[in-house]
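Researcher: I'd like a structural prediction for the single chain below. Treat it as a standalone chain; there are no partners to consider.
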Amino acid sequence: MQGISVKIISYNVNGVLNPLKRSKILSKLEKEQAKIAFLQETHLSESEHAKFKKMGFRYVYFSYKLGHKRGVAILISNGLNYKHIAETKDESGRYVKVTGRIEGNEITLLNVYAPPGSEWLLYRQIFVLMVNSQGVVICGGDFNIRLNPLLDSSGTSTHCIHLIRKVKSQMEELGIIDMWRELYPTSREYTHYSSPHSSYSRIDYFFHV
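Model: Treating it as a single chain, here is the predicted structure.
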């Protein structure tokens, strides 16, 4: 965004019902000086998501699923001059999109949690939301897919190659960029550890279009 720098952090929190855990995550966000946070798998109800507003984040946008499953939230710090324009959310706790102005700059934020085993339709829906958005578009979250099985996994990838090819083809067609991979085309860094498979993988991303 022109003239300003805003730090955005994304975490799969794997449930923040516990007040102590919620407090630790917020303390970490404060320590990292994050102005915007994307949280996945919050496992919170509507009223529980609203509690973030009392913890330094005046603007809280979320999608949740009944039964304390899934759930995503976008937290925007009190320290940002944010003016809200629009919000779109999934009814199954998989994504939430907000459009607004930060310090006068129009921006769209899209936070995603793609549950394990998600089908092509969800990824396509996310990409369509991105290209039909206004201003600077930033999409982040837990996509549960290894776009480059050789570099994004320390072991043998179990993901469907056909799905990976469709996702990458659609990204190329629409001009969607994997921001970290754009900066580090041959590097290995991981965001997730699977104990059953004893392997690391990069399944969390920030995309830009």
